[in-house]
Amino acid sequence: MPQGAELADFADIVKRNEPLAPYTYLKLGGPAEWLLQPRSREELSAVVKRCFDLRLPLRILGSGCNILVRDEGVRGAVLRLHEPAFRQIAVEGKRLRAGTGAAVSALISAAARHGLAGLETLVGIPGTVGGALRCNAGDRAGDISQFVHQVEVFDSAGQAQVRERDELHFGYHSSNLDDPVILAAEFRLESDSPDAIVKRMRRAWIQRKASQPLGYQPACRVFRNPRALSAAALIEQAGLARTRVGGAEVSERDSNYVVIHPEATARDVLRLIDLMRSRVQERFGVELEMELTIW
Ligand SMILES: Cc1cc2nc3c(=O)[nH]c(=O)nc-3n(C[C@H](O)[C@H](O)[C@H](O)COP(=O)(O)OP(=O)(O)OC[C@H]3O[C@@H](n4cnc5c(N)ncnc54)[C@H](O)[C@@H]3O)c2cc1C
Questions:
Q1: How far apart are CA 259 and CA 279, in angstroms?
Q2: CA 128 to ligand 1 centroid distance, Å
Q3: Residue-wise pLDDT tens digits, 246-278
Q4: Mean of pLDDT values over 102-111
Q5: Fewer Cβ within 10 Å of end Cβ, the chain: N or C?
Q6: pLDDT confidence bin for 92, thresholds 50/70/90
Q7: 107 in ligand 1 pocket by Cβ < 6 Å?
Q8: What is the distance in A from the centroid of ligand 1 to the CA of 252?
Q9: ∠ at Cα 124 (120, 125), nearest 5°?
Q10: Is pLDDT at 5 greater than 70 in this prediction?
Q11: pLDDT tens digits, 172-195
């Protein structure tokens, strides 16, 4: 049997050679060998176990806001936790529990409705709770890690495990959450008046929009800021502002963003990223680290 053919058992939830571009923010790249959308924890666990037994690469796709899929696509299984079982949000006192398929915007709204403060600084960050946890989404005003109390994951054998706060390490746009599946998380928040929360939310929204490139074309942030330096400033000083490769262009407004024109391919973006990285290395001896995940 060809490797992976056993996934055909999950006929109700599997698509073979499914294009991934429509599921990502950048709308680029090729297909997944297998795309699965489990409907329950049991089904998810069975899929993870099967991939583990078959040694089939397994990836989780959130909203695809921080992923660039290569034009040739990805081998193995890609899972989306988009069914209701993975998107539930429950509030109990100052505790908020969310499935990682829920949108960050839904998490913020639920917290605000219950007069729970903290998460509002994340307003305007697109994506799911799972992606936000793995990438420790946020900015200087705060990040999601500050409020995480506990995270439930599936390990590579498909077994549920709980990671407590003291086992979790979050850095700048990074975390040690490297289990194959982040399933759910519990957040501990503080009470505040809904009016005050909404006011802070508006302020955070304006600040976030002001810091992102303008325009109708999608654009992605590429590199982490090196310690005490700005990736955008290094790229600009390396003379790369507005440099274009095919349909991918360094943003005029913030050189750490690549703007995607309609004719762009994933290859164009990757070639431009290589150019940005090598030019900064040559000029300043600084090795830029990727923030964007490449599949
Ligand atoms: C316009 C725009 C603005 C942005 N602004 C910000 C910002 O201000 N601050 C910021 O931090 N980020 C920002 N981002 C980046 C992005 O929104 C965040 O990284 C977001 O958290 C990604 O969530 P996602 O669901 O799209 O994850 P994806 O892009 O789908 O996935 C990202 C990574 O997380 C993994 N992953 C996702 N879900 C799970 C899961 N359940 N279990 C295990 N692994 C999982 C994926 O495998 C992948 O490795 C921005 C992006 C865009 C497009």
A1: 19
A2: 7
A3: 999 999 889 999 999 999 999 999 999 999 999
A4: 96
A5: N
A6: very high
A7: no
A8: 23
A9: 95
A10: no
A11: 888 999 999 999 999 999 999 989
Q: Looking at this protein, which amino acid is placed at residue 281?
A: Q
Between CA 189 and CA 186 the distance in angstroms is: 10
| Residue count of the chain | 295
- Centre of ligand 1 to C-alpha 283, Å, is 30
| Predicted confidence band of residue 243 (pLDDT cuts 50, 70, 90) | very high
Pairing of strands 74-80, 58-61: parallel
**44-66: b or e for each residue (b if 16 or more CB lie within 10 Å)?**
bbebbebbbebebebbbbbbbbb
The structure tokens listed for 136 are: 């420790």
Record the tokens describing residue 256, joined without a space: 């750490």
